[in-house]
Design goal:
Number of strands: 21
Strand content: 35-45%
Helix content: 10-25%
Shape: rod-shaped
Distance between the termini: 118 Å
Order of helices and strands: HEEEEEEHHEEEEEEEEEEEEEEE
Number of helices: 3
Structural class: alpha+beta
Length: about 400
């Protein structure tokens, strides 16, 4: 191969390669470039709704009797009878006989004192007659002054003896009546320490009982919660059972089922605990052992542990927001008319366990974002899905 052939062969190969590349480039399908679509987040919202409701304050406590006492024998004697109701858990009415002592000795004492009174009365009548006779003789100048003085002294002694005998008879009669011990109030027996045939001494406590006309529950609440309750004025004596006293709803689980009772706050106790900052309010429930209109509801028994919800005063134009929708316990996210997120600072009235009570600035119908968002930018565009606010009905609490 000569020199000229060696030169044009590489040129031919390069030309063919360039032509092939040109054909490939010019005939390749065109690639269309699209910008990625921007994703708009979807959030759940609830509408702002104003309502009238009542504050609630929760507490808990143990049911206790309004009065409990030791039944004490006022006499010494042998027990001859015990009432069937005088057993632990037994019920009784005020005035019911609970225990009787042997009466014979006390009946004899009454007879003796009656005889003593009769004798003293006779002696008083004789002394009075003698005094009248001596007074007549003295007026006639027949009796001496010393005789009249002796007659007066004898009459005075006879009168004192008659008074003493009358008092002794009254005491003997009272002791006879005390051989039958009666219930001081409607109540129930907590404990009994006596049996038939037992000899009891004066002052012996034979039973522990408590009243059942109503029960009380001491409910500790933080002092900062007092602003949400319309409590009875502690400076007034006595208790307040008017319709203005706060209603308290009590509940407890008994025999595997939750039961409810209703009472009222009747007073507050005198001091605030310096360590816990708690103050005790006292709830009262009338007739805790009476037959209930609620089927299978047990009595509100002494010693039962209960949860309490105290119903406070009525407030108007309040918006209830789920607590999980709050940001920093003071603001929420609002979706405006352009579907953009806006932070809104709120006037918080009260933070409860599950809800927050606010009074604006929110207009009824504004959309409150309740979705948990990790990143929030003011004015961020969102899509909304409205849900029904599942909030408790507070308007009917009374």
């Amino acid at each position: 191969m000569n020199m000229s052939q060696k030169l044009w062969v590489p040129l031919l190969i390069a030309g063919i390669s360039s032509l092939g590349a040109f054909v490939i480039v010019t005939t390749a399908p065109s690639v269309e470039y699209n910008e990625p679509e921007r994703t708009i987040p979807t959030v759940r919202t609830i509408p702002a709704q104003t309502e009238t409701l009542r504050y609630r304050v929760r507490s808990q406590g143990t049911v206790s009797p309004r009065n409990e006492a030791d039944l004490v024998s006022e006499l010494s004697g042998r027990v001859v009878w015990i009432a069937p109701s005088l057993v632990p858990g037994g019920f009784f009415k005020a005035g019911d006989p609970l225990l009787r002592l042997e009466r014979r000795d006390f009946e004899l004492s009454v007879k003796r004192q009656r005889a003593s009174l009769k004798r003293a009365t006779s002696e008083l009548e004789f002394a009075a007659s003698e005094l009248a006779r001596q007074q007549g003789l003295a007026d006639a100048g027949v009796a001496s002054a010393s005789q009249l003085s002796n007659a007066r002294r004898a009459a005075g002694v006879a009168e004192a003896n008659e008074t003493d005998a009358r008092a002794a008879l009254e005491q003997a009669s009272r002791d006879l009546n005390r051989t039958e011990l009666r219930a001081p109030f409607d109540g129930r027996v907590r404990d009994k320490q006596v049996d038939t045939g037992q000899y009891v001494a004066r002052g012996y406590a034979f039973a522990k009982v408590y009243a059942t006309d109503y029960v009380e529950i001491r409910l500790p609440i933080p002092d900062k919660q007092l602003a949400f309750l319309d409590l009875p004025d502690p400076r007034r004596s006595g208790v307040d059972m008017t319709m203005k006293s706060p209603v308290v709803r009590l509940s407890s689980i008994f025999a595997g089922k939750r039961h409810e009772w209703t009472g009222r706050i009747v007073r507050t106790e005198g001091e605030i605990d310096s360590r816990s900052r708690m103050i005790n309010v006292v709830a009262r429930v009338e007739k805790p052992y009476a037959e209930s209109d609620v089927e299978n509801r047990p009595p509100l028994a002494v010693g039962l542990f209960v949860e309490a919800e105290i119903i406070g005063p009525e407030v108007n134009d309040v918006i209830v927001i789920p607590r999980y929708a709050m940001r920093d316990n003071s603001s929420v996210l609002i979706v405006d008319a352009e579907s953009r997120l806006r932070a809104r600072k709120l006037s918080v009235l009260r933070i409860e366990r599950d809800d927050v009570l606010v009074k604006g600035p929110l207009a009824p119908g504004e959309k409150i974002c309740v979705s948990p968002l990790q990143v929030v930018v003011e004015g961020m565009l969102v899509q909304t899905v409205e849900e029904v606010a599942n909030l408790p009905d507070r308007a009917n609490d009374s």
